Amino acid sequence: MSAGHAHKLYRHGHSPVHALPPHCKIAAVLCFVLTVVATPRTAVWTFALYALLLAAVAAAARVPAGFLLKRLLVEVPFVAFAVLMPFVATGPRVHILGTALSEPGLWGAWNILAKGTLGVAASVLLAATTDLRGLLIGLQRLRMPPLLVQIASFMIRYGDVIADELRRMRVARLSRGFEARGVRHWGVLAKSAGALFIRSYERGERVHLAMVSRGYTGTLPVPDAAAATGAQWTRAAALPAAALAVCLLGWTL
């Protein structure tokens, strides 16, 4: 874990948000998402305020709007599911532009879109301001089960290894004039997948032996780091505290 590892969502910077300890940011985002989920879906105006809060965080972190919007495309499958709900859900029907739509389906689609988008945006901001090593250390400091942290760490790092191996195999096929153009080439692709599995398995064994030879005993070392100060926790709590106030107003008004 001590080795640096950059991911595509991370945006290097020196903003106040980047400077916060990782575990403070993880806890803040988790509390914010839980607050958004607890908000009644009929309080439409509250979700606009949540979006403004995230926009303020993005501005403080110096994360451009284009960077954020581009990475929100990951929720497109959920958007497609939400769009279908008014057409397939049962219950009272309302007519919009001459089309009969389910009223509960419309509220369900709005609930998924609003809360899902805010949750994804908060997660993207967390990833944009915290590198992978920081996220893993933050999870450890929050007392997440060590085995789960190790699984996440190995999965992310080894995913890059497999992707690089797959890229080399593709280059080797292209250099030999092969290009998949139809069903008759599926056999070659299947053999490539089998070869990738064998290479990945062998690479995993070599990595494990290398770790054991260097003293790995089943646990990862936790780097020494100063505990978060009260001021840092206060700054991190600003987002969920403001969101909680909005949520309470949404339930009372």
Quick overview:
The chain has 253 residues and is mostly helical. The chain has 10 helices and 2 strands; from the N terminus they run αααααββααααα.
How would you describe this protein?
It holds the Pfam family CbiQ. Keywords: Cell membrane, Membrane, Transmembrane, Transmembrane helix. This is Cobalt ECF transporter T component CbiQ. InterPro entries: ABC/ECF_trnsptr_transmembrane (IPR003339), ECF_CbiQ (IPR012809), ECF_transporter_component (IPR051611). Its main location: membrane. This protein is mainly α and 253 residues long. The chain is 70% helix and 3% strand. The protein contains ten helices and two strands. The protein has helices at residues 16-19, 22-38, 44-61, 65-71, 76-88, 103-129, 132-141, 146-175, 186-213, 230-252, and strands spanning 93-96, 99-102. The protein has a two-stranded antiparallel sheet with strand order 1-2. A hairpin with a 2-residue loop joins β1 and β2. α2 (22-38) packs across α7, α5 (76-88) runs antiparallel to α6 (103-129) and α8 (146-175) packs across α9. The mean pLDDT is 86.
Mean pLDDT level? 86
Query: What is the percent of helical residues?
Result: 55-70%
Structural classification: mainly alpha
Residue windows where pLDDT falls under 50 for at least 5 positions: none
Keywords: Cell membrane, Membrane, Transmembrane, Transmembrane helix
Protein name: Cobalt ECF transporter T component CbiQ
Subcellular location: Cell membrane
Organism: Streptomyces chrestomyceticus
